[in-house]
User: Fold this.
Amino acid sequence: MALALNLYSLEVQKYEIKPYHKALSLKCEHCHETSEPKAGERLGDKVCLDCHKSKEFLATRLEYLGKKNPHNSIHDGTNLSCYVCHSSHKPSQNMCKDCHNTKTWMKEIQ
Amino acid sequence: MKKIFLGVILGVLLVWAGFWGVKYTGTANFCSTCHVMDFAVTSYQSDPHSGKNRSGIQAQCVSCHLPHDNIANYLLTKAKNGIRELAITATNTKTNWLEKREHRDSFVYDSGCVSCHLNLNSSSQKAKQMHEHYTSLKGSKNELKCVSCHITQGHGARLVNEIIKNKL
Assistant:
């Protein structure tokens, strides 16, 4: 039993989640539908949007960025997959930064 | 006899005035008389809680921003908040609303949410799962509040837009 618990906590440490999800005490099954997800399992946008509503709603939240709104950009509109920029178990990558200097208008994404 | 009669009349008048005062100072119209609250009222007006929903039921500012567990706590918190807001406005103290928003669980009360949202298991499977999670953490050190997850409720998606637009 103790060994199983240790292995479980090792797994949780290995797949560290972001502070804002940690603050809600989220567990594997809240996104993966199982408490023992397969390593490297890829989830769809729907899993994110089950809680985060819709891409249009997220775009509205960032309307103040105007044409620089990453959730409604002049390149991709609201069509980008969440995973292009956001990762749950590793550092996120802001795709805008590939071409633009975003320091003045966008905070670092976690 | 005359004194008792006058006392009763005065008592009734005081209760009526107190009731009216508490009721009036709990409306969005009253809160929006202070310009510092413009951003909150504008964003609230775009949210279903302003009455833009199928039932047409409208939540007032105090429905969410005051505790509804008992009348004494309600009145005490209302008085404390009123004095603090008055002092902030009188001294022209700037509030960092983006920062304050991070601590929303200290000024949005679950007792208000659940006084309308009686059945937490009536919506989607996902909502049911997350509400079970909320219930399982009740009383623990990791206890969640409704607004821990429902971060835009009450002011819709445009709250941050309004804060930034108004340079608050």
Notes: Chain B touches chain A through 17 residues (CB under 8 Å).
